[in-house]
Write a structure and sequence with these properties.
This protein is about 20% helix and about 40% strand. The protein is α+β, with helices and mostly antiparallel strands. It has one domain: Conserved Hypothetical Protein Mth637, Chain: A. Strands 2-3-1-5-4 form a 5-stranded mixed sheet, covered by helices on one side. The longest helix is centred in the middle third of the chain and has 14 residues.
Protein backbone atom coordinates (compact mmCIF):
# COMPACT_ATOMS: atom_id res chain seq x y z
CA UNK A 1 0.00 0.00 0.00
CA UNK A 2 1.24 3.49 -0.84
CA UNK A 3 0.45 6.84 0.80
CA UNK A 4 1.08 10.37 -0.42
CA UNK A 5 2.48 12.88 2.06
CA UNK A 6 2.99 16.61 2.02
CA UNK A 7 5.47 17.52 4.77
CA UNK A 8 5.96 21.02 6.19
CA UNK A 9 9.30 21.10 8.05
CA UNK A 10 10.20 23.74 10.62
CA UNK A 11 6.63 24.30 11.81
CA UNK A 12 5.93 25.83 15.20
CA UNK A 13 3.45 23.07 16.03
CA UNK A 14 3.55 19.42 15.03
CA UNK A 15 0.30 18.04 13.62
CA UNK A 16 -1.12 15.71 11.01
CA UNK A 17 -4.22 15.94 8.81
CA UNK A 18 -5.76 13.26 6.63
CA UNK A 19 -6.68 14.68 3.22
CA UNK A 20 -8.29 11.54 1.76
CA UNK A 21 -7.94 7.77 1.97
CA UNK A 22 -4.34 7.74 0.73
CA UNK A 23 -3.00 11.25 1.45
CA UNK A 24 -1.81 13.06 4.58
CA UNK A 25 -0.45 16.50 5.31
CA UNK A 26 2.11 16.58 8.13
CA UNK A 27 3.64 19.54 9.97
CA UNK A 28 6.86 18.73 11.84
CA UNK A 29 9.09 20.81 14.08
CA UNK A 30 12.34 19.39 12.72
CA UNK A 31 14.21 21.29 10.04
CA UNK A 32 14.69 19.82 6.57
CA UNK A 33 18.32 18.86 7.24
CA UNK A 34 20.00 15.46 7.22
CA UNK A 35 16.64 13.68 6.91
CA UNK A 36 15.42 14.87 10.32
CA UNK A 37 12.09 16.15 9.02
CA UNK A 38 11.54 12.91 7.07
CA UNK A 39 12.22 10.80 10.17
CA UNK A 40 9.85 12.88 12.29
CA UNK A 41 7.15 12.80 9.59
CA UNK A 42 7.35 9.02 9.22
CA UNK A 43 7.22 8.57 13.00
CA UNK A 44 4.11 10.78 13.19
CA UNK A 45 2.48 8.88 10.32
CA UNK A 46 3.23 5.54 12.00
CA UNK A 47 1.54 6.72 15.21
CA UNK A 48 -1.45 8.04 13.24
CA UNK A 49 -2.11 4.84 11.29
CA UNK A 50 -1.09 2.47 14.10
CA UNK A 51 1.90 0.66 12.62
CA UNK A 52 5.54 0.31 13.66
CA UNK A 53 7.90 2.88 12.16
CA UNK A 54 9.91 0.00 10.65
CA UNK A 55 6.90 -0.92 8.47
CA UNK A 56 7.16 2.40 6.56
CA UNK A 57 9.61 3.09 3.75
CA UNK A 58 10.10 6.38 1.94
CA UNK A 59 9.87 5.48 -1.75
CA UNK A 60 10.05 8.90 -3.38
CA UNK A 61 10.61 12.51 -2.33
CA UNK A 62 13.41 12.39 0.22
CA UNK A 63 14.37 15.97 -0.68
CA UNK A 64 10.98 17.47 -1.54
CA UNK A 65 7.83 18.28 0.46
CA UNK A 66 5.74 15.81 -1.56
CA UNK A 67 6.56 12.21 -0.68
CA UNK A 68 5.37 8.68 -1.37
CA UNK A 69 5.56 6.13 1.45
CA UNK A 70 5.10 2.38 1.21
CA UNK A 71 3.53 0.41 4.06
CA UNK A 72 4.76 -3.15 4.53
CA UNK A 73 2.75 -5.82 6.33
Amino acid sequence: MFLKLKVHPGSKKASIARKNSDAYEIWVRAEARDGLANDEALAALAREIGVNREKLRLVKGSRTPSKIVQIFK
